[in-house]
Amino acid sequence: MAKQTNKKETPKPISDKATQLEQHVADSTGQYMTTDQGLKINDDQNSLKAGERGATLLEDFILREKITHFDHERIPERVVHARGSGAHGIFKVYEDQSALTKAHFLCNPDIETPVFVRISTVAGSRGSTDLARDVRGFAVKFYTQEGNFDLVGNNMPVFFIQDAIKFPDLVHAVKPEPDNEMPQAASAHDTFWDFISFMPEASHMIMWQMSDRAIPRSLRMMEGFGVHTFRLVNAEGVSHFVKFHWKPLLGVHSVAWDEAQAISGKDPDFHRRDLWEAIESGAFPEWELGVQIVPEEDEFKFDFDLLDPTKLIPEELVPVQRIGKMTLNRNPDNFFAETEQVAFHVGHVVPGIDFTNDPLLQGRLFSYTDTQLIRLGGPNFHEIPINRPVVPVHNNQRDGFMRQTINRGKTSYGPNGIANNDPQQAKAKDGGFVSYNERIDARKIRARSRSFFDHFSQAKLFFNSQSEPEKNHIIDAFSFELGKVKSVEIRERMLGLLNHTDPKLASEIAFALGLHVPKIPLPEMNGSVPADADPADYTPVQTESKLTESPALSMANTIKDTIKTRKIAILAADGVNEKSLNSMKAVLVDGGATVHVIAPKLGEIISEESIKISVDESFLTAASVLYDAVYVPGGKNSVATLEAEENAVHFLNQAFKHCKAIATHEDAMQVLESTYFFKKLPKNYDEETVMREGVLVGADEKKLQNLFVKMIAQHRFWERENARKIPA
Ligand code: HDE
């Protein structure tokens, strides 16, 4: 466990947590190899045998130790959110929030709180693709001076179910089917949609899940949400309801579904790599922490229940106040030790943050510790370095598997007279946690509140708030997912359910499925009816949201003013015009983008001016789906080579299909002429056309460069999708 050397190539950000972790870091640089007992090893190549060709001897403790450790390397993956990527960072509040909460880390802008973040997919296994259509987990551990606070959220603000008791059913339905363990990391199969078709309460969440939010461009370009309503409690004991948000400073962006599927083959680690590389290059991902605050007395002022996790509070009703910023500035040293062993729990709170009675949240409060007991092997998982708070831990919990702490003294109970009654309870004024003094006056009952029964109005609100291309993507996603469902009965029941959200949406999906929308009365499709209940009492309520649209729900309205961290491909071959290539590259790099020169083969290309230009990727190793935009510089021979190179033309065709910005130097026009989309391009290239179409050919270098930068910042030109069937 002891740290062996202190060698570090780059200075790493220092925080209480980083310093604490550093004590557990082992670095083998310049060291002899030893056994786990510290014995130097002389031969790590051959086992101990009776003669050169003889049987291996049981005595070989070096072999036994090595193989035994290897045999026990695996721990169970998380039952959900198994695939995840982690990073360290810091959080700072902008201004004192003590009017709302007594949580110290939110009351002092000078405090820099270390954080560890893990972002995950939900359904797939540890080794599954990053680009699955799925919800993303967004879990943040704040190592505060009052203990750990975990904000364990998702990238969507609502959830599929209203009560924790349905969670195992939901997860069993979405995971690979139990007989053949297919499909991996996908909800597009019978059991998932079978379950959903009986769960009207999932109507809102499935709109989010079928939207482009489920296929982010980058983990750095995703929103995060605490989902449940929590409480903030100030020093006077006054409570406010709160919804937590993470707002990415690079905006919220997604890829196209066709692109996502291709990325899954070309680079299944696409998101993990992107996060890692961004942090390594110093382009630190940043999010602002947002809060929506509702005073206690306004609890019943909304047309939905604040305790219902299938509802959001529209930002137009309660604005999101941005109160602080999180910056991820350090990659983990070791994936297993940190990202795999980190244990989040929605019940890890600090004074000033408390729960509500949301029945999903209440169930989660049980689940997260329980799951770590099996996953991390016992009750001492809080001692694993990544899980330790930065403040001391003192209590009478003792022993158990893998106990690290050596508790000194005779007493492990309280009250005690032998040891001065230590460790002592802390008064509230000294930081002792006191639960919010909520008044509860109730009968014990298994039931659901009628205030949870409107399942469609926010599903409608979400759909109505989307731009035209986003709506099309939702229709396509449902058509894809239900198209993969084998049972026509399930497809029809889903259409029946969707019809209650939006008849036009249902009929467009029905068209793609070659079916008609059945009119199914709601009581017949609500599976959440207790055995002795009258189904009529469980019939969903059809209400209209007071808002017709919420612009905040559409990604079309996100930030589109930067090319920072975008990946741009420059296609070139021998004979390229060096100036045309390098001057564009310089402008892009200046804007914070990463630029790769892609050529027919690796190594170097020689420009028209006989200058050597190094090649980053070949057409064999690169693919258009791994880039945000593409540029073709001038240079007669280069252009002729690319025009005849199928892979280069395919690269451009795919970039067009996925609505990316494309620019070519005027001299490279021929390459464009080889694409299938050339004939569709408008003839007049004024700025307006370019900003609509996203394809630019130009002679004036300055203008070309400026416009290309603006185009890339737009992210995608979804309007191009009108012609859906294209040969790429
Ligand atoms: Fe989780 N969830 N969850 N969940 N969840 C887990 O805990 C659970 C829910 C979320 O990167 C598990 O350590 C129940 C909502 C994230 O390590 C488990 C219910 C939201 C992560 C568990 C929910 C989440 C988890 C599996 C319904 C968004 C990954 C491994 C009552 C607000 C954390 C683990 C990480 C992980 C249970 C619903 C977010 C089994 C019972 C809603 C981000 O404890």
Can you tag this structure with a few keywords?
10-stranded antiparallel beta sheet; 728 residues; disordered N terminus; alpha/beta; Catalase HpII,  Chain A, domain 1; Rossmann fold; 19 helices; 6-stranded parallel beta sheet
Give a brief rundown of this model.
This protein is an alpha/beta fold.
How would you characterize the overall build of this protein?
Helices cover about 25% and strands about 15% of the residues. By secondary structure, it is an alpha/beta fold. Among the domains are: about 85-385, Beta Barrel (Catalase HpII,  Chain A, domain 1); about 560-720, Class I glutamine amidotransferase (GATase) domain (Rossmann fold). The strands form 3 sheets. Strands 1, 2, 3, 4, 5, 6, 7, 8, 9 and 10 form a 10-stranded antiparallel sheet that branches. The chain is globular, with a radius of gyration of 29 Å. It starts with 15 loop residues before the first helix and ends in a 15-residue tail after the last helix. The relative contact order is 0.09. CIS-heme D hydroxychlorin gamma-spirolactone 17R, 18S (HDE) binds near residues 159, 227 and 360.
